[in-house]
Structures are given as structure tokens and as C-alpha cells.
What does this fold into?
Amino acid sequence: MGTADPKVARTRAAILSARFVRVKSSVEAMLEEGRRLTGPEIEALFRAALEAELTSYVHSAYENASWSSSVPEVAAQEAEAYRIIRRPDRHLGLTDQDRAELVRRGLGADVPAIEEYAQQIRDVLSDEVVAKRLEAIRAPVHAHTIAVARTHLIRAAASACTRVQRIFDDDIMDAADPIAALMADLGPPTNLPNLMPTNDPVVVPITPTVDSQFQVYDPRPFSAAIGDILSDLKTDGIWKGDLKQQRRIMETFAWITGDKPLGAYTHLDAAAFKKGIQKLPARFYYGSLTKGAMARPFADVIAELPPVAPADRRNPKTTNRDLSTMATVAKHLATTSWKPRIPGATVMDFGAGRIVIKVDPNIDTRPPWTTAHLEHLFRSPIYTGGGGALKRLRDDGPGRHVWHDAAYFLPLLWFYHHSCREETAGLEIADVTLDHAVPHFHIRDNLTRGRDGEMAGEKRGARNRRLPIHAELIRLGFLDYVEAIRAEGHVALFPELYVNEEKRGGAHFYERAWQHMVDYIAERLPLPVNPAGKGPDIHSIRSLGSSFYEVDGVNELMRADVMGHAREGTNGKHYSKRMATEGLNVVLHERRGFIERYVPTITRDIDPHPIRLLPMEKRSRVGAGVTRKRRSDAGTTRIADGGN
It folds into this structure.
């Protein structure tokens, strides 16, 4: 033991015993799982990942784009994420201790970004990706080496983020090879003749045997990049929500084009995508790339489909939507996998395929409701007294009651305030202010309209507005209803519209109530229908509201503010600042007078009733009215709702 001291000898014996156990365990694991990574293999992994990260940053920094100057700042935030994730037991993300440490160091404002980067790191460095890196250097691939290699890749990325802080230093800017200059302190690599490391095992440099229109040839099939694209565009704030529609469109592109390697795509594939989706009927069940129609070759599915009849063709607007989605994807990939070999060239041009939609001035694409139609609705048993759930449009039974929920208040709100479907259906209790000289509600982004913890609701900045609650809504108990919902502990003003995760808000209201309301109106007054067979929808109430202001003397700035339209003209856009100069109290009072001056009050005959709430699962389920003999000129009985 090298000592005569018994106490020291016992300590050293314990240490040697523990070390022996660890060595024995390591050997047994090696025999069971396969050999571990060697030093040269670790170096190869580290250098390849380091150079790949530095290459990406250097190209972004020297691209002279709008974001180039912010590369060190972004790298600094990523570096913090990498430093935390590379620690033991950090695979689940940041701990409270990590966050507190960042705050202590003055990085509290950066915590959300660092958390987001940490999540991306975990998503990107999947077992499959790490395994490919190991295969590229001919290292053993098993559970242990994957776990170890992931840590070394994270170490390399952290080092790259730290090194790139010097990207604009004079010695780096003056270097012939800035990437080599940033790695100079590492010295020459170990001689690894048998490992054949690549700069990046996922993206392979173009060689004479690979024909590609892009600077690098990415061998991944398009479908393999969909997850990364969705994550990147959501992080950048370009796309919001659950992105199911965007995913389906990208999967459709992969399906139609044969899911080729990213580097093998050409401009012809953009045209093939447009041609392919136009061969599909408007109602088509896509499935996914692993089951359903898209799991089979596109040509085989098309061969089995009958020719698309004119009535079943896709709407050109839907085709343009899909092309616009792919144009966003192409713009994103144009900085990486689809960066053209010729600077300034556009390879994947989806925008060029957009269909020019000619608007027939003789066809009203969304026929408006008339005041008379809404008067019939407001005289229905929903407002005068009817049965319970599924019988609220009937007044022929005992125990007639008026119930208060979205079915009662939404049509009133739409008529008197001209707000959009989702703007009103997605209001939260916090959006309604009662303790004010002019009670009002605030149309703004909120969590109820969003998904996955994101706020949503405003289509554009002008839609953020405050509207005074009309006197008729107050008379009919709207303020009491707000308090009743608050007392139940809900966040959403109309919580029954958000019990279904798939169809929410206005879409859920259409299914539960609106289609029956339309039938009820149609039984009493013919519906306006355009030559294409489309009748009025929920949004048509907004058109009716706007038409009330189509008279001489209307203040166009106030009309725009009430409707949530962008102001026009230099004065309206840049000089008129009445909210700032006069204050909210004055503006709300003026808006209330403006609305009440031009919008007719058509609900005076409705009697107010004490607030009555049905059980949650029965709210806004009005059911069909009593079927009457229809007039020959009543038009169609059910009109699809055009949404927001």
C-alpha cells in the first residue's frame, strides 16, 4: 500500500477495491455490448461536428444578410444551452437550478430562448442521427456508443458556439480559411487512415458523380426533414399553432414527388406537385406516409381514381394555399439543403405556379344576411323560450326556458359588434372589462384561440381593438353571464366551444348550433344564394354590419377601427392618434355612440331573463327546429360556414 499508517492503508484499499469493481464492470459491459469508442474515434466525432457547426455559423455571418450581424448573439444563447445539456442528467432539459443560475448571471431574459435551443438539441440529436455519425467514421454502433457519442457531439457544438464569438475579430476576418483559424488551437488532427471522417455525415459535398442544382447534396429523403422544417419555422415565428395542415401539405409533396433525396430535387418537382394535387378531388383522404393513400405510390392511387368531375375539383384557392406553404418551405431550405449552386438563382419556385383567380364582379362570393333574416333568428325560441338541449328551437313543449351560452350571445355579439367568428367565439373572461365607465371587450391574441401554449387570434395588427358592449347586450344580461362563467372558474367566455380538441371555437359552434339556426331562418325567409350556390355564413353577419355604415357622413377612421380594418391614407396611418390624445374613456364612449347611431336595434322585443346555464355538455346544443313545409323558393337548407 506504500504506507505504514493503517488508516491510510485502509482508505487506499477501499479505493483500489472500488476501482477494480468499475474496471470489471466496464470489461463485462464491453464484452456484452461491444467495444467502446477509442480516443481517435472521439476526436474524429468532435472535429467533424465542430467543423460542421463552425461552417454553418461562418456562412451565416459572412452572407451579409439581415441576420448576419446577430450571429455571435445567437451563438452565445446556443452555447448556454449546449453547456447545460452536455452535463450529466440534463437530457430532460433545464432544471430550476439552471434557470436560477442563468438569472444570477444576468441572462434571465434569454432563458426562454435557451430552453428552446435545448429542446431543439434533444430533438436533432436523435439515436438515428448519432448512429449515422458513428457509421461515417466506422465506429461501433450500439446503445452505449450512441449515448457517449451524443455527449461528444454536444461538446463539439458548445465549443463551436464559443469559438464563433470571435467571428468578426480581425485575425479571423483576415484569415484565408476562417474555419481553420477558429480551430487552430486544436493543432493537426490525429492520423486516422482507417476512419475516413467526413465534415458532416448527413450532408455530402457534391462530386462529379452527383448531379444537383444545390451547393451541397443532402441525401436525406424530403420526408426526413419535415420535422426539422416545422420546428425551425415555428421557432422563427413564421408558423404558429399545431401545424397539422402544413405537415400534411409537406407529406403530400413528398408523396407526389417520390420522396427523393433533398439534393435530387429540381424545378420540375414544383410543377409536378401542382399538377399532382390538381388530379386529386376536393374531398380526398390522404392518410399519412405510413398508412392510407399516401403509403402507396402516387401513380397507383391516381390510376385507381375516376376522373375528377368539375363539381369535385379542388378550389383554386386551396391549390394556391398549398403552393404558398411549399414556397415558405423552399425559402427556408434555400439557406441550407436547397441553397442554389448559382448565387441568386431560384430552383424551387412554387410561387410561379400560383393560379390567377378571376373574380366575377357579378358573383357575390359571400352573400350577406339581411336585417330581416336576423330578426327571425332573434324571435326564435332560443330568445323567447324553448325546450332544453336539442329542443331549444322548439316552443311546443312544457317548461319553456331561455338558456344562456354561446348559442344565445354569439349571434347578438356578431350583429351588434361586427366581429369575426373566431374573434368572438374565442373571447376569454380576461378580455371583458366590466368595471369601467364604458364596459367593453378587447379583441387580442389569447391562449384560448391558440394551441400548444401559443397565443393567437389576431389576423393582423388592426384586428387588435377594444369595442364597447352594446346597450342591448347589457340589457339582455351579458354582464351577468360573464360573472356567472367567471364564478364557474373558466378561462374561455364560451367554454363549451373548447371541449373538443379537433373542432374548436367557431367551427364547433357551427356543428352544434349554427347549421340548425340557418335551417330555422330558411324555413321562414328565403336565403340569398349566389350563382355558384353559396349562401350566407357566419362571416356574412359582419358584411351586414359593415353595410350599416355605407351611408353619407360616416367617419371612415372610426368605421375602420370598429371593424378592425387597417386605416387608409396618410392622415389615418400616421397622424390621427385619438386613443393617445384623448384616452380610452373618450374613444370607447365615441365608438358606442357611433355603433348605436348606425346599427338598428332589432332586439327590443326580446325580454331579458335571469341567467340560466345548462350542464357543460349540453350548452349550445340547440337541435333542429320543428320541420315545416318549405317554400319552393327557400333555397338550400344548409349553408357551409366560411369561417373567419
Remarks:
- The chain is about 45% helix and 0% strand.
